[in-house]
Automatic annotation (TrEMBL):
The lineage of its organism: Bacteria, Pseudomonadati, Pseudomonadota, Alphaproteobacteria, Hyphomicrobiales. GO terms for molecular function: hydrolase activity. This is Family 10 glycosylhydrolase. Residues 402-572 form the ThuA-like domain. InterPro entries: Class_I_gatase-like (IPR029062), GH (IPR017853), GHL6 (IPR028212), ThuA-like (IPR029010). It comes from the Bacteria.
Length: 702
């Protein structure tokens, strides 16, 4: 028997329905599920996980309802059943929001025979069979398949089922298609032939990226309009992961994506567990107030594609909890409606329950921080999916260093650098924002003139938004340097030497020099700057008898400058972020943290004392401050799956009391339990004896 419906359903079937869709169950059906799976089991999962929204397979590659659209392949196991309709009905009886899932990336033989122009073509001119299932064909995302056939499918689903939205997976294509239509269209739009490489030096590759954005943006608009013409409250929701914010024009996303989905479902290879939370920050970096949802798989996300397996429960919870820490809403996905392994249900239910308990506190607060990493979308949009992670290494290194330093921080997109957004932060970090426009540079300079501070590294500002080299880096005059030798490397066995006492050189007691980078820029520093570190001139790394310096340290390796408006800048002319991400040397982490602390110029508003690795998030509301503490301390922190949780503690949170306020109470947000506190020197201190995974302390001011 289904639970009785709540008294009010005002949140259902309205244009703002998504605002109350905060915990999602996604079921991606296998073709034989119509005769094998139990819809009642999944309705029970909705209840156990406290899900208030669901995403269910409907059509595209396979239809799980009796479709009448010609060439829309219907599951051969469907018979007279309607599994999609049954699940929609079960969810609606629980007053859940419902989104239909479509996947347009492949077609069956009959459709390929009838419309060969729907099939993707490789560089050699061959139509592409599916790489994993050669019986079917890969579609061209830029063809009439998406622009004429799929709108008919969307119209049929919207008209016949009680849904709020349609979600598309694998709708963006799989790289360059060399079909005749793409060749003709691209040539007419750009004047180029289709690119044969993904080289940043190839103008055709850069032009293809712009052409692809235009085609897919048009697709989003047309699919959304097709649905709204039938049910005005519905939306087409493209699977817009964090990288999509770089691949699409922001006005299209702003108008047609009421919420954003992060389709990074779990860790792959060597990857820290904070990566899911980073996606929350990255979404806010561009769209600060737009809901963002983290899709978590209950299986491993390795390249070997065990898609119908279950990973360990602590790993599932760690990924979900990291997203919750950084403001992402919860969504889990299960492939195949038959469940031979139920070990995932309890950990998902536990993390969803924690989110439900924290939801009131999260809803009344917004993220805040004194520090932000600039997300270099202008730079990263030139890279494809395979090469982008290498380009992001600079930012990932700074991210890891700030986590280790327990410095709460946000991210800010270089496409959203308004004065209002920038002035929310006291320090902006440009880890390697290679491509900057003159307008972006002027916004950064104005920020410093208003008292903002910067930490800048490596080749920031050395190229135009179109990736053309600049003779002089845009921010060089602000940071106080001129280039004497362009970047060189990779070089080995390099060092930087401490140069006197300075806050940036603190904590290196006993060392005269530390490891340097592998990509170095030679610079002359302005007279009004200081140089806490100097380059040690190159010397051999073999034979071992030759491994000694020939010259005294010379040339600024770190440049610090104080500005009239009260801001401070630090410039590090080598790849400190990327090399820290690769090597994880403690000295590089300390140098990054020292630079950020000096640029901040004050004691951080929120501090945490105690042993362990934690990810912090700070949120503010009217008369309240929320500090989320996510325990990352684990031998599997950098490479999952996590086997078990290692509690840490005791921990003490120290928070600056806002001017004109006094503390009314401190409590655990999830349970409401009040905590003892002490007040001294304008700060409040609260201790917790032990932290297992995620806790949130709420400070209420009077």
């Amino acid at each position: 028997m289904l639970d009785a419906a709540p008294k009010s359903t005002d949140h259902l079937r309205t244009p703002d329905w998504y605002r109350t869709a905060t915990r999602w169950t996604q079921l991606t059906l296998a073709e034989d599920d119509p005769i094998r799976f139990d819809p009642a089991f999944w309705v029970d999962v909705f209840k156990r996980t406290q899900s208030n929204a669901t995403c269910i397979s409907a059509g595209g590659y396979v239809a799980y309802y009796p479709s009448k659209v010609p060439l829309h392949y219907v599951s051969k196991f469907l018979g007279d059943t309607d599994p999609f309709g049954a699940l929609v009905e079960g969810a609606r009886q629980l007053d859940m929001h419902v989104m239909a899932r479509v996947d347009p990336h492949a077609i069956h033989q009959d459709a390929a025979d009838a419309h060969p122009e729907w099939v993707m073509v490789d560089r050699a001119g061959n139509r592409m069979r599916h790489w994993a299932f050669p019986d079917v064909w890969v579609t061209c995302a830029y063809s009439d398949y998406n622009f004429k056939f799929m709108p008919e499918v969307l119209r049929e689903i919207t008209a016949n089922y009680d849904i709020d939205a349609i979600f598309a997976n694998r709708w963006q294509g799989h790289g360059v298609c060399y079909c005749d239509a793409c060749r003709t269209d691209f040539r007419a739009a750009s004047g180029h032939e289709l690119p044969l490489t993904n080289s940043l030096d190839d103008p055709a590759w850069l032009a293809w990226g712009a052409w692809r954005r235009s085609k897919l943006s048009r697709l989003v608009v047309e699919w959304d309009e097709a649905m709204k013409a039938i049910k005005p409250h519905t939306s087409f929701i493209p699977n817009m992961g964090s990288v999509s914010l770089m691949e699409f024009d922001l006005p299209i996303i702003e108008k047609y994506c009421p919420f954003l989905c992060v389709d990074d479902q779990g860790r792959q290879g060597t990857e820290p567990v904070w990566m899911s939370g980073r996606n929350g920050k990255r979404m806010r970096a561009t769209f600060r107030d737009r809901p963002a949802i983290l899709i978590t798989s209950i299986g491993p996300e390795e390249a070997h594609r065990w898609k119908d397996a279950v990973t360990l429960g602590p790993e599932i919870q760690a990924w979900i909890d990291s997203g919750t820490t950084q403001g992402l809403l919860s969504w889990f996905t299960k492939f195949n409606g038959v469940v031979p392994d139920e070990r995932w249900i309890a950990p998902v239910a536990d993390s969803f329950a924690l989110h439900a308990r924290l939801e009131p506190a999260l809803a009344e607060t917004v993220p805040t921080a004194e520090i932000a990493i600039l997300d270099p979308t202008t730079t990263l949009r030139h890279y494809d999916h395979a090469s982008r992670r290498e380009a992001e290494a600079h930012d990932l290194g700074f991210y890891q260093a700030l986590v280790e330093a327990r410095l709460p921080f946000e991210m800010l997109s270089d496409a959203a650098m308004t004065p209002e957004r920038m002035d929310q932060y006291k320090v902006l970090i440009l880890a390697n924002s290679t491509c900057l426009s003159q307008e972006q540079a002027e916004a950064i300079k104005a920020y410093v003139s208003r008292g903002g501070s910067l930490v800048v590294a490596h080749e920031t500002g050395t190229r135009t938004p179109g990736n053309e080299a600049r003779q002089n880096p845009l921010l060089a005059d602000l940071l106080g340097y001129t280039v004497t030798r362009p970047v060189r490397g990779p070089v080995k066995n390099t060092y930087v030497a401490l140069n006197g006492e300075h806050p940036i050189t603190r904590g290196f007691d006993g060392a005269a020099r530390i490891m340097g980078g592998t990509q170095l820029i030679g610079v002359d520093a302005a007279p009004d700057t200081v140089h806490p570190f100097l380059y040690v001139p190159d010397f051999p790394d073999l034979p071992m008898e030759e491994v000694y310096p020939r010259q005294a340290p010379q040339g600024a390796a770190v440049i610090a400058r104080e500005h009239e408006g009260g801001g401070r800048t630090v410039y590090i002319p080598w790849n400190i972020g990327a090399i820290f991400w690769e090597v994880l040397a403690g000295d590089h982490a300390r140098l990054i943290a020292n630079s950020v602390h000096w640029a901040l110029g004050k004691r951080p508003d929120v501090e945490l004392e105690g042993r362990g690795v934690v990810d912090l998030s700070v949120r503010e509301g009217e008369g309240t401050l929320l500090v989320l503490i996510n325990n990352l301390t684990n031998p599997m922190m950098m490479k999952g799956p996590i086997r078990e949780v290692y509690p840490i503690g005791p921990l003490t949170v120290s928070v600056r009391v806002p001017e004109g306020r006094s503390l009314r109470r401190a409590r655990r947000a999830a349970s409401g339990d009040e905590l003892e506190f002490t007040l001294a020197e304008g700060r409040v201190r609260v201790s917790i004896a032990q932290l297992s995974s995620l806790d949130a302390i709420q400070f209420d001011w009077s």
